[in-house]
Structure formats: C-alpha cells, structure tokens
Amino acid sequence: MASRTPRKSNQAMLGHKIIVGIDYGTTFTGASYVSTTGSDIKDDIVIGTWPGPSRDSETVFKAPSRIAYPLDNPLNRTIRWGFQVEPGMTTYSWTKLLLDRNTALGEFDDPTLEGASKTGILQLPCGKSAVGVVGDFLKEVRTHVLKMIEKQITKEVLGITPIEYWFTVPAIWSDQAKAQTKTATQRAGFAYNIERPNDQIFMVTEPEAAAIAALNKTATDGLGASFKPGDGVLVCDCGGGTVDITTYLINKVEPLLAFEELCTGIGGKCGSTAIDRNLYRLMSRRFGKAFDMLPAKKKGPGSEFMRKFEIVKKDFGFNIEEDKIYELPLNIRAGKVKSEYFDDEERLVLLSSNDIRQLFDPVVDQVIGLVRKQMDDAEDAESGIINRIILVGGFGDSEYLREKMEKAFFGITITVPDNPQTAIVKGAALRGLWGLQVTTKRCRRHYGFKWSIPFRQRIDREKNAHIDEFTRKKMVGGIMKWMISKGEKYTENHTHTVDYTQVYHSGSSMIIKFVLFSSDSNEAPERVEHTSIKKVGTISVDITDIDFNLFEKKLIDGVLSYQAKFSVKVIFGAQDGVLKFETTSQGKVVGKTTIDFTNTKYY
C-alpha cells in the first residue's frame, strides 16, 4: 500500500487534474467527472447516485433542482435538497430562471412565465436572492460530488488533486445571468476555497457541451450515423426552462472532431416547465380558487401532483390513445366540477389525451418555430445546409416532440442520443478534458459604447449636437461605436479595443465610468435611442495612478482640466464564461475594471 501513494502524489504534481462537468438545470441537476489520464468519452463518469428517499430507483443520473430550508420546514434541522425534498415540504424550485429575470421576454419565450410568480412557483425565501438560493443548492451538490469522487480515488488523492469545474449555461442568457451564475458557484465553494485553493471554475454553453458529447459519440460509434466534413448539424437543447439552438459545421472528424458555429444561435425560455405552467392555467380555469389557493407544497414541483404529471409527460407520445384518461392525485374541494374533470371519491384530477396534447402543443410549436428560424438564418447566410438535427436535454427525450419534429422537418435526419439528459453534463467535462473543439463561434448580439463624433451636416440633427468643452468643436453625441457585431466570428479569448477620450476636471472622482450597450437587431443601429439597444452595464475604472501631466490640459471655467485618453478592451469568449474588461492608458493597465449590470426585473 505504501508504494502506491507516492505514485499518485507524483502524478498530481505532474499536472494531473480532475475535470467535473455540472449541468445546473431549471428542473434537474447532473454531474460527471473525468481524470486527465482519460482520453475517451467512455472515461467520462456520470454520477448516478443522489441522496434522498424520494427517488424512484437506485440509479438516477440527475437530482431535482429544488431546496427546502429549515426555517420553512420546522421538522427539518438542516437544508434538504434534490431527492431529500419530500412531498409536503415547502420548497424553492425553478430558481435558475430567476438568474435571468432582468432580460425582457422575447419572441420565443413562454408568455406564461411572467405570471408564474403569482402562482407561488417562482418564489424566493424571505431575505434571500436568487444567487443566494442557487449558491446554497450548489453547495450541497459540491459536497455530494466530492464524496462520490472520493469513493473512487480515496480522500488523500482527492486532497492533492486540483479540480476544474465546468458549469453549463444557456447560450441565450444575458451577460448578467452568466455573471450571477459564476457568483453563485463561488459562494458554493467551487473556487476561492481555502481548503482547495487550486480548484477553478469555467463555463461552457449548454448547446456547445451537448454538441461535444453528441457529435463525438456519434462520430466514434461506427453505427452508420457518423458525420463527415461539410455536414451541418443543428443541436436543439430542450431543457426544463430554456430551449437553446446552435448549428455547427463539421470541419474534420479525424484525428479529433472539430467544428464551428454555422450561424448565430437562437433560443427561448420555452422549456418543459412551460408545459407545467400550462397545466396550472388549465387547473385554474377548471377548479378556480380551489386550485389557486392551494399552497405550493401541494401543487408545486416535488408534490405528489407534479411527480405524477412528470411521469405523464415522459410517457406522452407513445401509442397515443384518443380516449386515454390520465389521473393526477390532488386533494381539493372541487365543488360543482364536472365529473369528467375530477374523481371526487378517489380525489383524482382527470385529464384526457386531448388535454395533454393542448398542454404540449404551444410549447412544441415554439420549439419548431425556433428550429425553423435557425434553418432560415443558415440559408440566408449561405453558410451551408443543415442535414441533421440532434435533440438533447430532458425535454429532448419527449417522444411527442420527436414525432412532431419529424413531421415538421421531413427529409432531415433527427436523432436522439442515448440518455439525452446526460449529454450536456458529459460534454461539459469533455470540454475541459479535450480543450477547445468549437474552432469559431458567432457573437449573439452587437456590443459597443456610445460616443461623440464631428457633426455631419444634413445627416445629424441639431438637437443631438453639442460643443466639445475641450476642443470647442461641434460634435454629435449618442453615436454607437460597435466593438463586435452580431453574427461575427470569434475565437476563444477574442478581444476588441476601443479608444476613448474623456475630459477630466481636477478634483473630480477618480472613478471613470463607461456604459456598455448591446443590441439583438440584425442590423447594427447607429444611434443609442434605437429600441433594440439595451444597457448591459456600467464599467468602472479606477484612474488613481494615472499621471495626468502627460495629457493635454487647459483651464475650463477656471478649473484645470485634462483630455484623458484610454483604451478599453473587452474580452469575448473567455473560458470562465463571462465578459472581461481591461483599461489601458499611457501604455499600462489602469486600476481595476469592473462592471455593474443593469437591474430591471421582467418577471
């Protein structure tokens, strides 16, 4: 035994690492891990044991993304999470969606999302933020993941082996939501941890992770469904809260698979939880206040009512019978409700096949609409032909969705990998193991700053004109300086720099601020007032250490003023998944650059 430990220690010192992929989803969370000594997708181990009495079998690859606090459940002395949460407990679910509630609902977002908080579903504990609740949940996940890895390699070896955590995030998410996700992971102890100072956090988008797993597996299976260079593959990640679509062009298959984004990806907040919200609306119409006034623990995620509905959702699509009746247990005072809707003796809600179809169809139609738009975008860009669709994610396993997709896109091969729920979490770990596989990505929106330029006669309006207080030239403000355009290709750690001039008056604050804007419009707007332009956040730069004597100076209204010149660099595609900034002046990095995101709640 003694001779084996030094070998492991030496291995750790020689750069041996463990890569952990974590897919924190709206409804379920999964994790997988792989050692840097592994080289194949088969070496990627998906954790199949999660604690708690409410799981249906011994092997489950994901745990419910829900948490119950002792304050709300006096019989519990500690936090309960995942399968530890039992029916009847007051729980918090779908919290992931609250990380991106500052983004206005888009064309393909579920319209019922806005009113979901009124039903008691999208709620937060008193005094806690969404970041705090997600952090508490992920802290429990981290403890369990480390325990599972420790069983495989011993506590001693784990203690000296650094871990890279690769978290998946929806590609459609705002930059603020990605930053909040990272903050939650840090609060959970995944990085900056005194006990494990060498652990790191990275991020990968969910469709990219799914593509890495699905494309590599298919390319190496030899089952007749492998890809070839030039193929266009649309990955449709249908999760609980979001649907993310990205299309890839296969560049090469051997010796390693490499692919690039074919066109700008799209998505929407229209995952399988939208079907749940449709169910709540149907129940409200049929049972009124008898249903509406029920506490969340009786009708929300984790309740017996919703656990049974989850089974119905998974089964729907196999041998659909027009006269089949589905039964959901719910103890309510139904009053004078038609017997076709409720079995008063057995306390069962009764739903027909047509009822279930009407719950599914609006959501399925949104998914099909997203896929069709992505295919149109690829055709308009003359980027290539999409000849394969891969469905992944929990909702991607729906037989009803697959059948509807095949009818909508006749002639295109539609495949679903084995256990599509784990494709994303496996791909996240493989992303860390193999390094970059998506050679180039497409920017999902325009990013830039507003600035002033010399006034243009017959083009600019006088109301937008002003006299520059330093140069005394006539200028026009509110003009956008776009750093990177929507659809523009970029690689990892791609940078764009913009030169910025600002008048600094002696005695003013040593913090200079720049506002970063974005636009989802296909054509980049020229002026900041355009309806598509959104404020991403305010970048603050500490200029305390700048030598202002090196700038041009003059007296303005009796105050010594300087024409300060800066270069603001924005880093896109950083491995940790969030926007990074750097400001330079006089040939050196200036102070610390941070961003405060705009805070406007939409649901």
TrEMBL record:
Alphabetized Pfam families for the sequence: HSP70 (PF00012)
An annotated Gene Ontology molecular function: ATP-dependent protein folding chaperone
Keyword Transit peptide set for record: no
Record CDD domains: ASKHA_NBD_HSP70 (cd10170)
Nucleotide-binding keyword on record: yes
Residues spanning the membrane: none
Keywords: ATP-binding, Nucleotide-binding
UniProt name for this protein: Hsp70-like protein
